[in-house]
Amino acid sequence: MIKEFLKAHLLFTLSILFFMGLFFTPAYAGQMEGPLVDAVSYYNQAVDAASQGSDQMAMDFLDKALSLQPDFYLAQITKAGLLSKNGNNSEAMQLLEDVNKTHPDNKYYLATMTSVFINTGQFEKAITSADAALLKDPTLIEVWILKGTAHGALGEFEEEIIASEQALKIDPENINAISNLNYAREMITVKQNKTHQGGVETTPISVFFVLTGVLVSFLLFRLRD
């Protein structure tokens, strides 16, 4: 029962995160010229495609953007997130390593690494990466949610509650943070009941094989005209 509940919780949380609201980073056409303008245009089209669930179309637009501006790090990060979402984690990691060479410890790089680590079942590394991202920007609500999810996967439900409560301070109505919070409380209750009944709590299972979604949406920045 606990295993099935854990699977369902993580699958729900990580799959729904991809469809959360987009962040926007303004850029002005007057500041850009030539290939950069076209790269931004392709990037914006990739954002639209990804937000509508058209991953392959988004990848095509990102590749076009990167062919014009190979060091367009937001496009690189977004592409890495989409690659991981679709199971290409080794390629995603390589792309993120390239980003880190030019933008070391960028908060969006760290956030995407968090999602990739979760997607590959590396929950301790996910927590470390999330902590680093939150140290740079504690308002990244999605990272708080991912941090909570990683703690929950390790059976660290008290820590999941703390992370969820931090997310809810930013957005009191966030359904994903509420889901994590309710899940952690439920698991603590189940654990306490087993203890009172003389049962033995099993070690949380590895659930990477059921994680089909990753945190990508907040990396899909629209660069405005």
Automatic annotation (TrEMBL):
Transmembrane segments: 205-223
Domain of life of the native organism: Archaea
Record-linked Gene3D superfamilies: Tetratricopeptide repeat domain (1.25.40.10)
Keywords from the named record: Membrane, Repeat, TPR repeat, Transmembrane, Transmembrane helix
InterPro entries according to UniProt: TPR-like_helical_dom_sf (IPR011990), TPR_rpt (IPR019734), Ycf3/AcsC/BcsC/TPR_MFPF (IPR051685)
TPR repeat positions: 141-174
Designated name of the protein: Uncharacterized protein
